């Protein structure tokens, strides 16, 4: 029943986009500060995330908690990989925790906004949309004793190509991943122009639908260059999906935060505290450490501090994490899903 409800929510995503923002009457009219949060949330303490409701009737204490990880290259791999963690949460929290594989960033965000999703791992850009549009409260990131791990934007070309600088890609086929992606779209729009390559002017970004698709597209010759996250590239090398020697890196950025782990803002405070405790006392399995580039634990973070550089890139790229940008991204994802459905099946 739970899986059916979540799946139904995914299918209805396009309709939800038309209905979600009609709840102005639900807004907390006495809210002293909202910032970029949607109308139904408040940020009285200025930490940039939704406050816990002060009305006890609005707090949630579900007997079954739903956890979803960001849409990934191969959902089956992560469903198996995260089983030990889900089992740990079941035992530690003391109630049933189920894993649900989402098919898109929009579906994941809408599930949390509607109250069907309680705990989640979002990728970098969607974390900010989840904060503003769905009341997500980031509290952890994957890391080690040294602290949270980050990733870098890299510009990949085939090793056999003649490209030496970003400026050499003018007029060429350059892959971005999706409009809401930090490393796959927003950061290149800010960081590439000073190096002689301006998206939409020097080339038309080709949205591949994912970092893995961009990397494979370069390998297969579909794209001349791809802007991707280096941690996805490293994972694909570790799994043997691609070979490092087949690529060259033309550009490497400074470090960005990786996935943000969040809980819903309206969980009962005692439950939210228990969720955080159980994240922080979990030690990654050897398989998780390998897949997540050496991460061995969840470490505490705050959205206000760790996502500052991400918000800055979004603002400078003209795509802040607000309602208008989110609605546009939701429509693009819905259109992409419909186009995929309309394609004839592969023989």
What does this structure look like?
With 347 residues, the protein is an alpha/beta fold. Helices cover 39% and strands 18% of the residues. The protein has 14 helices and twelve strands. The strands form two sheets. Strands 1, 2, 3, 4, 5, 11 and 12 form a seven-stranded mixed β-sheet that branches. Strands 8-7-9-6-10 form a five-stranded mixed β-sheet, sandwiched between helices. Helix 4 packs across helix 10 and helix 7 crosses helix 13. The chain is globular, with a radius of gyration of 20 Å. The chain starts with a helix and ends in a 5-residue tail after the last helix. The N terminus is likely disordered.
Features:
seven-stranded mixed beta sheet, alpha/beta, disordered N terminus, single chain, 14 helices, 347 residues, 18% strand
- First-last Cα distance: 33 Å
Number of alpha- plus pi-helical segments: 14
What percentage of amino acids are in beta strands? Answer: 15-25%
What is the number of strand segments? 12
Q: Would you list the SSEs in sequence order as H and E?
A: HHEHHEHEHEEEEHEHEHEEHHEHHH
Kindly state the mean pLDDT as a whole number? Answer: 89
Shape: globular
Helix share, percent: 25-40%
Task: Record the SSE blueprint.
Elements: H1 2-11, H2 13-19, E1 64-69, H3 75-81, H4 83-94, E2 96-99, H5 105-113, E3 119-122, H6 124-134, E4 136-144, E5 147-148, E6 150-158, E7 174-176, H7 182-191, E8 206-207, H8 211-220, E9 225-229, H9 230-238, E10 247-257, E11 260-264, H10 269-280, H11 286-291, E12 297-300, H12 303-306, H13 308-316, H14 323-342
Parallel strand pairs: 1-2, 1-3, 7-8, 7-9
Antiparallel strand pairs: 3-11, 4-5, 4-11, 4-12, 6-9, 6-10
